[in-house]
Each structure stands twice: as C-alpha cells, then as structure tokens.
C-alpha cells in the first residue's frame, strides 16, 4: 500500500495531462457525461471515490451538489485542493475506499472515474460493499471507464494499464462490470458517451437488503 501511495503521489503532478491524452478529451467533457448519468439535483450529496485531482468532483460541486472527494493519496488531494479554492460545496478526505469514514445510508450517489480497473478483485468487492453501505436506499453508484481507444498509441497505453499493470481479477472485470455489480446492486446497466470513448456502468442500492 505504501509503494502504491508513493506512486500516485508522484503521478499526481501530471495525472490530468495523462487522462486528457488517454481519453482524447482535452475539454474534459466526460465529466459532463458523468454528471448527466448521475441524475443529480441541487442539495444532494455525492461521494466521489478515488477522486484523484478532483476533476469529476469539481464538476459536480459547481452544479450545486455537495461532494465529498475521497482519495488515499495526499499528492492527489493537494492538487485537488489547489483546483477547488473558493468552492464551498466540496470537502476532501484522505481515506481508503475500502474503509470509508462516512455514515451508513447517508449519501445519494457514489461516483468513481477511471479507477475501478486498477483495483484487485478482492479490493474491488470490499469497495463495492462500502458503496452499498453508505448509499441511501435507492441511491445510485456510477463508475466511469474508458472504452478501448481507436488510436494505436493511446490503445497501447490502455492495454498496458489493463493487462500489464493489473491483476488477473482486474482483467476479468474489464468488459464484465455489470455481472459483478449485480452482486451488490439492482437495475444495473451501461451507458456509452455520445462520442463513444467512455462508458458509465451504474446500479442502485435495493430499498431492502437482497443478500
């Protein structure tokens, strides 16, 4: 865990540039796509897991949504704090997504952008248990991930991320996200962005416990 945190602390200084290259989304319109899929209203509360430098969290907060951005990397959160000066709707928390310091049944949405593929199978299931714990009944979880890029260089970066840096559990998760979310959530589905570069996989917490 310490080596992984050190990696992300170093990565934080050029993370935004990497994401724009990987996605080809220089204007970060995919953050608008996430907000659209989330179906949020002013005054609702969102937890943005693995928030990184806070781009998705900031997009939601500027629309009048209360946002808690969570990341285990102090480097990422430093970058996020610099970007959010003057934004009163957002709060940054350094924590492990597998053990969130958040009350049960207290938030309307949980989002996660470009991070679930980087978790091992065991860690991902622990995170999903925490997601269902903190969501209000009928609350929604939305994870956003890149679709395989068409450009050769960018596609190579994508494959490195999935196949070389990931575990076997990560590789099996890519492309079968709905099956795993079905274990924890209901009304699971996938929506592809208008540009066809990003997908959002979502599901809702049952009103009653289904397990």
* Average residue pLDDT: 82
Helix content: 25-40%
* Number of structural units classed as domains: 1
- Counting DSSP E segments of at least 2 residues, the number of strands comes to 7
Assign the CATH topology. Answer: Rossmann fold
Radius of gyration: 16 Å
Structural class: alpha/beta
Total of helices: 9
Model description:
This protein is α/β, with parallel strands linked by helices. It has a single domain, classed as Rossmann fold, CATH 3.40.50.150. 40% of the residues lie in helices and 23% in strands. It has nine helices and seven strands; from the N terminus they run αααβαβαββαβαααββ. It has helices at residues 2-11, 15-23, 29-38, 55-61, 74-83, 121-134, 152-164, 168-173, 177-181; strands at 45-49, 66-71, 90-94, 107-113, 135-146, 186-192, 198-204. The chain has a seven-stranded mixed β-sheet. α6 links the parallel β4 and β5 (135-146). α3 (29-38) crosses α4. The protein is globular and about 40 Å long. The mean pLDDT is 82.
């Amino acid at each position: 865990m310490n080596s992984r945190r050190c990696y992300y602390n170093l990565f934080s200084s050029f993370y935004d540039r990497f994401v724009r290259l990987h996605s080809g989304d220089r204007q970060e319109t995919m953050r608008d796509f996430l907000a659209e899929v989330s179906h949020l209203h002013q005054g609702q509360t969102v937890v943005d897991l693995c928030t990184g430098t806070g781009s998705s969290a900031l997009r939601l907060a500027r629309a009048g949504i209360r946002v808690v951005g969570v990341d285990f990397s102090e480097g990422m959160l430093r970058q996020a704090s610099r970007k959010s000066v003057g934004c009163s709707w957002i709060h940054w928390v350094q924590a492990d997504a597998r053990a969130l310091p958040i009350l049960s049944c207290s938030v309307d949405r949980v989002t996660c952008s470009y991070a679930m593929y980087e978790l091992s199978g065991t860690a991902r299931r622990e995170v999903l248990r925490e997601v269902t714990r903190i969501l209000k009944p009928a609350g929604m979880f939305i994870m956003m991930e890149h679709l395989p890029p068409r450009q050769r260089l960018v596609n190579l970066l994508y494959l490195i991320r999935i196949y070389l840096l990931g575990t076997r559990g990560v590789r099996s998760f890519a492309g079968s996200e709905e099956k795993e979310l079905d274990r924890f959530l209901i009304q699971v589905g996938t929506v592809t962005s208008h540009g066809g570069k990003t997908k959002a996989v979502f599901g809702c917490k049952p009103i009653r416990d289904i397990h």
